[in-house]
């Protein structure tokens, strides 16, 4: 009789444990993802998590999200919310623009997914007072090319069509400064 009660207790405990620990596989980001970026397979990892009623707010690992556009910043390791990506973003309104920046004019460890502001400072006589100009804000970094010994870094940024010309106008006679936002 005691042995039968012990087996029933173990079976009940096992069933209760299984019922309480229902985990689901959802997508998480492997690195920083910024607004405007197109999600690639290398940006994703399937993660098993325990989500009770909130599971519907996150993307299941069975969902095909490669090629979709990021709408909100997603930090490295974060679960990817349904509301943070979209299929129908107008990609024709975005351009990848390469910028060559002095190594001292950008944040340390700048990488894909960071969100930055771009400022311009006119190249003039050092004795004159110079006011920086904010060119664009909340711009996403698509890629940071390998730093070289030349003292410059090539950075690929995502700009909207109307931001491209105004930014390029400053390249010839200004020094560009990249400021990371949080």
The third-level CATH topology of the largest domain is Elongation Factor Tu (Ef-tu), domain 3
Instruction: Tell me the distance between the termini.
Output: 64 Å
Oligomer: single chain
Strand content: 25-35%
The largest sheet, given as strand count, sense and whether it forms a barrel, is: 5 strands, antiparallel
Question: Strand order, biggest sheet?
Answer: 5-8-7-6-9
The coarse silhouette is elongated
CATH class of the largest domain: Mainly Beta
Residue-averaged pLDDT: 84
Number of domains: 2
The run of helices and strands is HEEEEEEEEHE
What's the count of strands?
Answer: 9
Rg, Å, rounded: 24 Å
Protein name: Putative SAF family protein
Overview of the molecule:
The protein is α+β, with helices and mostly antiparallel strands. It folds into 2 domains: 22-86, Type Iii Antifreeze Protein Isoform Hplc 12 (Alpha-Beta Complex); 92-180, Elongation Factor Tu (Ef-tu), domain 3 (Beta Barrel), CATH 2.40.30. 15% of the residues lie in helices and 35% in strands. It has 2 helices and 9 strands, in the order αββββββββαβ. It has helices at residues 2-20, 161-168; strands at residues 23-29, 44-50, 69-70, 85-86, 94-102, 115-122, 133-144, 152-160, 174-180. The protein has a 5-stranded antiparallel sheet, covered by helices on one side. The longest helix has 19 residues, at 2-20.
């Amino acid at each position: 009789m005691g042995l039968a009660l012990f087996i029933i207790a173990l079976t009940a405990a096992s069933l209760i444990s299984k019922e309480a620990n229902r985990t689901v596989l959802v997508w998480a980001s492997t690195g920083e993802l910024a607004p405007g970026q197109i999600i690639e397979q290398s940006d994703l990892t399937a993660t098993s998590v325990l989500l009770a009623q909130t599971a519907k707010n996150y993307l299941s690992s069975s969902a095909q999200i490669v090629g979709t556009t990021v709408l909100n910043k997603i930090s490295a390791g974060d679960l990817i919310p349904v509301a943070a990506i979209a299929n129908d973003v107008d990609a024709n309104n975005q351009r990848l623009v390469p910028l060559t920046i002095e190594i001292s004019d950008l944040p340390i460890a700048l990488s894909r997914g960071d969100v930055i502001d771009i400022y311009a400072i006119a190249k003039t006589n050092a004795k004159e007072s110079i006011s920086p100009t904010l060119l664009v804000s909340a711009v996403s970094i698509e890629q940071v090319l390998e730093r070289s010994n030349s003292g410059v870094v090539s950075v690929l940024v995502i700009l909207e069509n109307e931001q491209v010309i105004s930014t390029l106008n400053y390249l010839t006679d200004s020094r560009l400064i990249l400021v990371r936002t949080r």
